[in-house]
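Dear colleague,

Following up on Tuesday's group meeting, I ran the structure prediction for the two-component complex that the binding team flagged. I've pasted the input sequences exactly as they went in, so you can double-check that nothing got truncated or mislabelled along the way. The structure tokens for the whole assembly follow below. Feel free to forward this to whoever is handling the docking comparison.

Inputs:
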Amino acid sequence: MHQRSYQEVRDWLFARLHRTSGKHVAYNHKVSTHIGKGATTLFAYLNVLNEVPEFERDGLTLVPGNVLTSFNVEQLLGAIFDDYKSRGWTIYYA
Amino acid sequence: MLRCFDLKTGATTIVAATFLSVTQIAAMPFNEVKEFDFDGNGYIAKGPESRALQDEFTRLNGQQQSRFGRFLDGSSEKLELSELDFSDLYAELAQSCQIRKRFYLAESLAGVSLVHPDIITLSDKGALFSLNYDNANDETNWAAKGVLVYAPAANRCLHVDSPEPLDGVTLTGYAVAPYLSFDGVGSSSGDEPSDLRFGALVDLQFFGGVFDLQQLQFSPFYRTDFEGEAEIYGASLRWTPYKFVSRLNGLQGDAGHNGVDYRLSADIEYLSVSEGGLSGLPSGTEYGWVGVQAGIGYSPKQLEGTRFDVNIDAAYDLLNDSDAVLYDAGVTIPIGEGQTAAFDLRYTYGTTRSDSTTQDGLSANFRIRF
């Protein structure tokens, strides 16, 4: 069974957002604070996340429709967990 | 594996084993999550309640896991139960697949995205309305350029429910919409060429591959002029790619970029001119344009929102062995908050493909969009 810890996935997401904005990343930040405004920006960034080596190795498949432009970082993390779970992975809290 | 909870102590006891994997078990209903509030005070408190729910962490849905994990990581001693109810959020996600905003106004079809209706890009411009008076010649001139789109049908979530991995470039959204576009200048001394179109727009969204996102727009149309004299039939196909880290077509890119961004799109356009009218095109002619639009912009960090850019619109007419190349360079300065209005100073030189006129001039424009 494939499994991944909450902390691993969170750290990968936070690191990629930090690389994009250069800012400290917090759960309650709007995603647009780090990547810019607009649905096109958000949808394109989903492919950036899918191509993060760790996520790509795990088969992350975020697509437009998995997220809202109003999402904060916590909700984007939740969307990533939902994608893992939809593909049969287990997310556990270490 | 199934567990039994002592509602008073929160102790967890394994009572049975099953052959179901955790991933085969549906996400825990919110009513079941409530059962972890052992004292019924409406909160999950750090201690027995949180430990019991943590034991069932794998059964929470993704949003619940994210919220509960944040709580476990944080210093807060209790988490309100209602914060683990994400039914409204999942409903909103489902609704977002449909287009809610029905009317769009922009400078051209190239600035409209039905699949991404709240597109905000550095290179995006609103419809243009301009009026000026020439004292020397006692002449009033006006100009208008824009497109009004009505979007009745769309789906932006074609791959959402599929657990299958993307196989390269994947169609993830579509929209179909009728539109009215206008582009023309006029003066008190006489009629000038103009372009008035009625058409339908088929907007396709592709995700993944070399580009993060691609948009393909197909549009059959009927074209006339502002006097209704021209009669022209045609169709166009436009491709616009987006690449985040390359700052292509308005995307932000990663931190540390040098302020440079790029524009790129390509199109094919076929025209059959029955009556030329005020279109600037002769009657009884056909055109088959293949074009590329490219540009490079620079936004100095010291001048927030201000963008200098140079662009080229190069097109070749396959049916008539002719070309039209139009260059422009300018600066766009935002006015107020929200990037809905801007002052634009622009120099244009070259030949337009729409009416084959030569341009060599400087213009100052006020642009607004909604």
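Residues 1-25, 119-123 of chain B have pLDDT under 50 and may be disordered.

Cheers,
M.
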